[in-house]
Amino acid sequence: MSKSARRLIKKFNKIKTLPHVVTKLSGLIHDENSTMKDFEDVIKMDPTLVVRLLRLVNSPYYGLAQKVDSIGRAVAFIGMKNLYNLAVTDAIKNIFTSSEDQDQIYSRKQLWMHCAAVSICSKVLAERIFGVNGDDAYLCGILHDFGIIVEEQVAGDDFIAIFDVYDFTATIDTFERQLLGTDHCEIGYLLTRDWEMPENIQHAIRDHHQSLDDVEPNSLSGILQIAEYLTTQLGYTIITGAPATLSPTLTNHLQENMDEYQVLLEDLPEEMEKAQDLYGSE
Fold first, then answer.
1. Which H or E element spans position 121?
2. Are 38 and 80 in contact (CB under 8 A)?
3. Which CATH number is associated with domain 3-16+101-279?
4. Model-level pTM?
5. What does the pLDDT look like over 150-173, one tens digit per residue?
């Protein structure tokens, strides 16, 4: 790993950290002896998160017939991992939207909407195409471009210069490495490793702009790349007109299952509308 990535992360950690509630929930997720009551006790300490939790569980995303009005029932219903994802989403969104955009090409709002779209698409892909739980795929989508926020906040003029030289011939990580000596994929990988997230999430974030020969479509790395490619086709990009990377094996997979993916693309805007409480759109 490059020294440049570690240097930027060290500077970022001095000004921004994940909220205490996220750290506590992360510890509980990795503790096999933790109980639902432990999660409820942590959530109670964050009134804003309580409001978001109850709003989420009563939203159209779940479509419950009866209103859920207690923290315990809400936690029991959505599950511990989904609760953790909600807390991470809240924390990440606050960091994404905590200051004004700095550049006409780069927009924090556009970056956030890109990450939201990729997270929802990743979850839908995992569940509808591959028949697996989509919670980790969702988390990958929310976090995959967080390294860009780190660069923006601590790299100053060098970060802005990326957009001065960006020419749409390659993905943004190529230009990041030229000017910063690292890229948001590497930074995101190191951060998720520091946060002790599962290795498959770390690797998916590290590799999401890489053309890999052996990536499996149903792996987190494959799902994240496909989701970013599909959402790019729908216009949810960091930079309007920017290309998306797709490994050859994933291209073949898309071509072989084009009918299924066409239906998914048609349904995705409605899925995002349903999930607006999950990814924090006001």
1. helix 108-124
2. no
3. 1.10.3210.10
4. 0.85
5. 999 899 889 989 988 998 888 899
